Every structure is written in C-alpha cells, then in structure tokens.
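ARCHIVE CARD
Drawer: 12
Card no.: 0347
Subject: one protein chain, sequence and derived structure
Cross-reference: see card 0346
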Amino acid sequence: MRRRVWCGVGWAVLVTALTLIVYGSRAWAGASRTGPSQSGPAAPAPAAGVASESTGAGAGAGAGADVGVPAIARVWPVGVRPSVLRGWEPPATPYGPGHRGVDLAAAPGSPVRAVAAGRVAFAGRVAGRGVVTVELAGTGLRTTYEPVRPSVEEGAEVGAGDVVGVVAATGTHCGASACVHWGLLRGGTYLNPLSLLPPWLLGRGPSRLLPVLTG
C-alpha cells in the first residue's frame, strides 16, 4: 500500500516539474523575441521634403512641384519672369474642382514660346479658344498654352524658346485680365508646369556660369 502511495506522489512531482520546465522555456523564448523590438532603437524616418534637384522637385521648383518631372525648361512661356496670377491647385479627384495649370500675366499679342524642345501635337481651337500643345522630346510629357493664336502647325518640330503663337485678345482664361494658361500633362494626368522650371528661371538660385575652354 505504501509503495503505491509513494509511486503516485513521485509521478505527481515528475509531471509538475516537466510542466514548469516546458512553460518556463516558452515564456523565456517569447521574451527573447519581443524584447529587442520593444527596447531597441527605432529606425530613423526619412527626412520630409527631400527631393532631387535634377527632377525639378527641389527648392527651385516651389511648393507643389511634381517629383519625376525633369527641369528641362529654358524659358518661360511668356515674358522673362511673368507674374503668376493663379497657381497650381490640383483637384482632389479627377473630375473635382481645382486649377489644372498656372495662369501667367501677358498682354494680348505677346509671343508665346515653347519652354523646351518638342513636337507640336495640336494647334487649333478648343471650346472657342486657341490652344497649342507641344509634346516634350523624350519625356512622355506635353505642355499646353491657351488662349493663343497659333503660328505653328501640327507636327512641326520646335526648340526651346521658339514662338508657337501670340496671346489672344479674346477668349481669355482670366476674365478681365489677359493671361496665358500653361498646363502640363503625362497621359491623362495633370501636373504642375512650374516643375519644368529650374531654380535659375524661378529666381530662387544663383545663375551658373560654365568655364570657357580654350585650346
């Protein structure tokens, strides 16, 4: 009888010891997995607003510039440094309210220039206004200028600074004030045309003089 009692007690002690060992090892393993992630240093977050100057999205392109748009413009569409009457206001939805471009102050009859080299994709009237569209070479982008009286034809090759028309006196986009509405698209997506301008054209960076090499 005593032998049975002692055997029962022994089995109970053995089961209890094994239980403590198993659960203790699991708890230790869980702590080792979760401990470093809770107490270790957090990875540094990327600095906000960092952008490459080569994309035209740095400080020179101004707020709202689009990353991935090359700063290839060599002139403003009108004038030397025209006033921006209304800036870029991207809509929240594809068909929502906003301003899909920028309005530049310009007197009627002022020349309108291609900001970069490309091909004229359209020159004609849309909804009663003269429009010129230029596909920018090697970019997949196209710029639009309105209202203008076109002086180029569809398919013509243009260089940066070439005149594509003049500011129309009627059908102005800006109401009582004469202006040119300058737009930029990639496919069906509107982008900020000011992203095309390098800092020296925006007046927010020094002009860069290249050395003259002599023989």
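Annotation on reverse: Confidence is low (pLDDT under 50) at residues 20-63, 206-215. The helical segments are 2-39, 199-202.
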